[in-house]
Amino acid sequence: MQTFTLEQVAQHTTTSSCWVIVQNKVYDVTDFLFDHPGGANVILRYGGKDATAAYVPIHPSDALDKNLAPEKHLGTLDSESIRRLKESEKNKVQTKDELRVEEALKNKPPLQRIVNVEDMEEVAKKILPYRALAYYSSAGDDSITHVENSRAFGRFFFHARVMKPVSQCDTSTTILGYKSTIPVYISGAALARLGHPLGEVNLTRGAYKTGIIQMVSTNSSLSYAEISAARVSPDQPLFFQLYKHVDDGIAERRIREIEGLGYKAIFLTVDALVPGNRELDIRAPHYLEDFENEGETDRLGTAGGLVIKNDADMTWERTIPWIRSVTKLPIVIKDGNKGYQDAVLACEAGCEGIVLSNHGGRQLEYSLPPIELLYKIRQQRPDVFEKTEVYIDGGIRRGTDVVKALCLGARAVGLGRVFLYAQSAYGEVGVVHVAQILEREIRFGMQSLGVRSISELVPQMVERVDWQPVTRAKL
Predict the structure, then answer these.
(1) Which end of the chain is more exposed for a tag (fewer CB within 10 A), N or C?
(2) Is residue 146 among the annotated active site residues?
């Protein structure tokens, strides 16, 4: 294999010839510049330089193999250049943000002090690098939808039954036929390695240890094969959250890849066809520029670059039959339903499930909260629950939130940010801890309502009120 010096690589910094170094290997990315989802400038910023630190946390290990022809894998750095890079890394001065994170990690509370999911979020927000925090926590426009997703649960109150035997309470259920110890799954969420070096592996192993199911994002920071290989048992089910690529050929290869790896279902995201206006994410470079005297604005932000190649012309008539022609896996539509109409169309298209979601408040501002959509479908088209499995995600903070959704007909609920925060702050054990918190709260809610199994949760056990609690009490 050919070797190069740092000086040789440094000569290739333009749109006519752009080379980068990733993990001591040299790549010619010239032809890929204008196909890069985040735009050419993102790559040109590292033209002729070592891009490892910026590249590795947000790209799967097979991304270069999938996107660059073999002849563009030019070779490696020579031993002297590798030594110089190591020396440079060793002498690198920490940024203010890195120093902040280092101090926060020293003062991180022990895991047993985390008693609810808000505790976990507060810790994670202190220890996350700013760019990671901006991506994970950002929401659309003024974050009104994001906030209302949680507030909406406060409009639903319980009608509990008493004098019921509840000492034996079973919180388990099935999702698309696969057993889950609680009616909760890990929603597909991108770029877990921004928060922890092991990234999605923490989610996979934590899911296995607690008996819940992980949905893997199209935009995972580890390859689909690496995540599949991280399963503790080959019987552990994984679902796949699909952003359909605008190129049918690429989309088909992606679907066939995950099916071959043993993924069990496709959750097709249809409400993030274009980049959302996630201003905290977009402003991250401005903040770092003020804080570190460096930074460059990318109007798309981290999130925008991930969806720029999504198919914005999907239809019920074409897309669902096309996916059916490619795979036999169950198809679940993950969207921001605006009422019962889309739910009915999903049933008519033969989809095995629907997720009522507004993308965690990250896309269209003023999309209805998912729990409100669930309530509307229960009121207007209760037959939907007999035809397909219904899930919701967005705004779930407590086990009682989960129980309310199940009373109204949801099969299960998804949580994304919460598990990202948990694995960022404490790794695999953080994921396990959050699942255990939710299991405890769900069990308490069920027993307090007088039920012993998920199937006993019915709409009559909740009532929607027209007033709203002022705020969550904090002790």
Answers:
(1) C
(2) no
